[in-house]
Amino acid sequence: MDILILLIPVTMLLLTVGGLFFWWTVRSGQYDDLDSPAHKILFDDDKDMIPTSDKDD
Amino acid sequence: MSLEKCFHCGLPNPPKPYTLEVAGKEEYFCCTGCRSAAETIISSGLGDYYRFHQPDQQPVDVDLNAKQQQALKLYDRDDIQSEFVLAVSDELKTATLIIEGVSCSACTWLIEKRLSQLPGIQQAIMNAGTHRLSVGWNPKLLQLSQIFENLFLIGYRAAPFLPDQEEKIRLKTQRQFILRLGVAGIGMMQAMMNAVALYSGDILETHEIWLWWTSLFLTLPVIFISAWPFFTSAYHAIRGRQLSMDVSVSIAIISAFIASVIATITGEGEVFYESVNMFTFFLVLSRFLEFRARTLTGGGNALNGLLPQTCTRLAEGSSCEIPVRDLTEGNLIRLLPGETCPVDGTVEDGASSFDESSLTGEFKGVVKQPGDTIYAGTINQSQPITLKVAKVGSGNTFNLLQQLTERASTEKPRIAELADRGSRQFIWSTLIITLIIGIAWLFIDSDRAFWVVISVLVVTCPCALSLATPTALAQATSRLKADGFVITRGYVLERLAELKEIAFDKTGTLTEGSFAVTAIRLSNPNPDSGFSEQQVRSICSQLERNSEHAVAKAFTGDMASEADMTVKHIEFSAGLGVQGNSEHGTWRLGSSRYTAVPEDEAHSDTTVLFLTLNNRLVASIELQDRFRSTTGPLLNELSGASVTSHVLTGDANRFPAAELQALGLTGQYQAGLSAEEKLEWVKSRPYYPIAVVGDGINDAPVLAGAAVSIAMLNATDLTKSQADVLLLNHNLLTISKALRAARKTKRIIRQNLLWALIYNAIALPVAAMGLVSPWQAAIGMSLSSLLVVGNALRLRRY
C-alpha cells in the first residue's frame, strides 16, 4: 500500500492541472450560455445522413 | 398548419388568408409579412424550421420600405458603428445584436443558419436565453445593414446591443458562481473518495494520516475559492452589526474546517473535510440556481432601440438623412407618418395627429397644429410635418421621465431577506448555548470539551436552516419562469406573499391596447340596395390601409376581399378622418364632424366612426379597446385571495369603471392620472406591499416606486428595465398563479425553518450531553439538509 506515497501526489498533480483547465474554460466564457447548446443538438443538419428518412416526424 | 391558424406566427387567420405552397402543400398566412418571411425561409432551404418551431403569436411586420432601408444603411457608417462594433481586423468586425421575435429554440437555429448562408459571415452565435446574437463578419464582403435586412426578411427585428453596467456585473457573477461550483464539486468528490477509504475501517494509522493530509489540501481551494464569498459577506454583515445567514454558514464551515485541521496536525480526533466540501457545494449550487433563475432575462441598453437613430433634416431647401445626435436646437426636421419623433420640438409646418401612448398611455391620436409641441418618443400618425427642434438629448421629455424613474427606484426601500430575519435570533441562541455548553464541559471534562463543542456546532449547523430559504426560492422562481413570470429581483416572492393591494394600468395591461370593431350598424340593412357588413369592412380597410393610426389596425384583418371595389385617391385629414374615391363616388370615414353626421350621445364611451358615401351615411362603426379575456378571471381570483385591485389610468374616460367593477374590480378606479400622479397615489397607500402592473413608458416611474412591479410583454423597454417581474405572455392569470406560488413558497420556507428548529431542539441536548460523536453529527446534518431540499421540490406544483 506504500504505492500511495506515489499515487497521492500524482492525483494531486492531475487535479491541479484539471482545476487550472477548468479555470481557463470559465475565464474564456465557455459557460456563459448554458441553455442554447442543449437545444442546438436537436437541430443538426444530419437529415441526409439518416438512412430511414420517412421515420422522422 | 391549418386554415384557421397562420402557418408562420400561429395567430388566427382572416376569412381569406394568404397562401403559399410549402413542400407541395398549400399553407395559409394571416398577413403578407408572415407570408414573405415564410417565403424567404423556404427559399433559403431552411424549411426544417417549421418542423420544430413554436409560433410566437406575433405577426411579422410587412416588408421594409425604402425609407427604413435607408435608415438601416446608416448602420454601415463608421461613426455609428463605433458605439457597438468591434473591429478586430481589416477583415473581421464583431457586434452583439439583440433580437426581437425569438420564441423558441428553432428560431435560434433559423437565425444562425440563415446568417451563415450570407457571404462574409464569420460567426453567428445566438443565445436562446438572452436573445442576443453575437455576429462576426468581413466588412469587405458584407455590410452590417445587410445583416439587419436579412434578419428582418425572416421575421426578426434586430437592434444594436450595448451591455450596461448591470449586465457586465451579471456576467462576472455568473462566471464566479460556475468557478466556485466546479471547485466545490471537484473537492467534494475527491474528499468523498478519501472518506470511503477512511470509513472502510481496515486502514493503517500512517495511511489514515496521509489521507487526512490529502483531504486537507483538497479542501483548501474549496475554502478559499468556493466558500470565500460567504466569509466576506459575513464579515460585512458583522461590521454592519447584523447577523446574516452567511455568518452562521461561515461559523459552521470555519469551525468544522479548523477542527479537522487540528485533528490532522495532532493526529487524533475526527476530520470533517467531506462534510465541509459537500455543504459548500450544495450551498453554492442553491445560490447559483436562484441567481440564474432570477437574472436570465433580456436587458441591456434599452433606450437605444426605442428611439430612431436617424431623421431627415431640412436645410436650405434640400433634405438629408442625418444621425439624431448631429441635431442641434433650431434645426428643421421632416417627420413622415409612422416615424417616431426623436426630439422635443414645435410644429413649423403642416398638421398631423400624434400617438402619445408611450408618454400618456392613451393611444388615441392627439392633433398637432403649427406651434404645438411634439414630444420625443411620440409617433406621427397621418401627415408628413416639419418641426423645429427645441430640446436635444438630456433635456427632452423622454429623458425627464427616465430621470423620474431612476429617482423612484433609488427611493425604493430595501427589506431584509426573510431567511435572515427568521434565523437571526436562532443564530444568536445557538452561539450562546454552544458557548455555555463549552464552558460547562470545561468543568466536567476539559479533555472532551473541544470535541463536544464541535459536535454541538456541527449538529446545530445551520445547513438545513440556510438551505431552507434559497432552495425554496430557487424552485419557485424557476417554476414561475417556465410559466412566463420572470422574476428579476430577489425580494419579489416574499413581497408577493404578503401582498394586500395590486394596481393595474388599464390600456395595454387590462385591455388589449388596440382598437377592435365591436359593432357595425348599417343605415340601410337591406342587402339588395345597401352595402353588406363585409363590404363596409372591406371599404374601411382599403381607406385605412396606408395609415399608421391605431384605428386603422382595427380593420387590417378585412383586406383583400371584394376586389371589385377599389378605393383610390386616399387623403388623410389629421385627427379627423380619411376620404377616397371608388366607382360609387366619394367615401369618407371619420368622426361626426368630418362626415357631418350628428353624434349619438349614448355611445360616447366608445369611439364611433362614420362611413359616408357622397355625404350619405352608410354605416356607423363602433370601435372599442377590448378587455383581455383573462381580465375578469384575474380580478375574481384576486378578490378571492383577498387582494384589493385598483386601476390607475392616464385615460380620462371614466366609463370603463362600471364595466371593470362588473368584472370584479374591488378597489378604486383612478382616471386621468399623469405618471407623477400615479407615483404619488401608490406612495400614499397605507399598506406598503403594493404591486403595480403596467406597460407604457408613463408607467415606468410608478413601477420603479412600487414594492413589486410587473411589466407586460408589450411594455416599452424603459418600463421593462424598471420591472421586478416580466410577464412573458398575455395571460393575466399568470399573476394570480404567481401569487399562489409566492404564498406556498412562504409556507414551505416556514415548514423548512420549523423542521430545522425541531431537529436542532432534539439534537442539541443530545450533543450537549456528549452522546453524539462528530461524524454522527455530520450524518444528521446532511439528512436534515436533504429533507429541506426535498420539501422545496414540492414547489414544482402549486
Task: Put the structure in a nutshell.
The complex is a heterodimer of chains A (57) and B (798). Chain A has 57 residues and is an all-alpha fold.
Number of helices of chain A: 2
Please tell me the CATH architecture of one domain in chain B by its name: 3-Layer(aba) Sandwich
Uncertain regions spanning at least 5 consecutive residues of chain B = 297-308, 407-419
Label the structural class of chain A. mainly alpha
Distance between the termini of chain A: 58 Å
Per DSSP E runs of 2 or more residues, the count of β-strands of chain A stands at: 0
| Poorly predicted segments of chain A | none
Determine the fraction of residues in helical runs of chain B and give it as a percent range.
40-55%
What share of residues are in beta strands of chain A?
under 5%
| Structural class by SSE content of chain B | alpha+beta
Number of strands of chain B: 29
Subcellular location (chain B): Cell membrane
Membrane topology (chain B): Multi-pass membrane protein
Keywords (chain B): ATP-binding, Cell membrane, Ion transport, Magnesium, Membrane, Metal-binding, Nucleotide-binding, Phosphoprotein, Translocase, Transmembrane, Transmembrane helix, Transport
InterPro entries (chain B): ATPase-cat-bd (IPR021993), ATPase_P-typ_cyto_dom_N (IPR023299), ATPase_P-typ_P_site (IPR018303), ATPase_P-typ_TM_dom_sf (IPR023298), ATPase_P-typ_transduc_dom_A_sf (IPR008250), ATPase_P-type_domA (IPR059000), HAD-like_sf (IPR036412), HAD_sf (IPR023214)
How would you describe the overall organization of this protein?
The complex is a heterodimer of chains A (57) and B (798). Chain A is mostly helical. Chain A has one domain (4-45). Chain A is built from 2 helices and no strands. Chain A is elongated. The N and C termini of chain A lie far apart (58 Å). The model of chain A has no long low-confidence stretch (mean pLDDT 78). With 798 residues, chain B is an alpha+beta fold. Among the domains of chain B are: 1-63, no CATH class; 66-161, Alpha-Beta Plaits (2-Layer Sandwich), CATH 3.30.70.100; 303-395, Distorted Sandwich (Calcium-transporting ATPase, cytoplasmic transduction domain A); 475-500 and 629-743, Rossmann fold, CATH 3.40.50; 512-626, Calcium-transporting ATPase, cytoplasmic domain N, CATH 3.40.1110. In chain B, the strands form 6 sheets. Chain B has a 7-stranded mixed beta sheet with strand order 17-29-28-27-18-25-26. A 6-stranded antiparallel beta sheet of chain B has the order 9-8-10-16-11-14, with no helix packed on it. Chain B has a 6-stranded antiparallel beta sheet with strand order 19-24-23-22-21-20. Mean pLDDT of chain B is 76; it is low at 297-308 and 407-419. At the A-B interface, helix 1 and helix 2 of A face helix 5, strand 5, helix 7 and helix 8 of B.
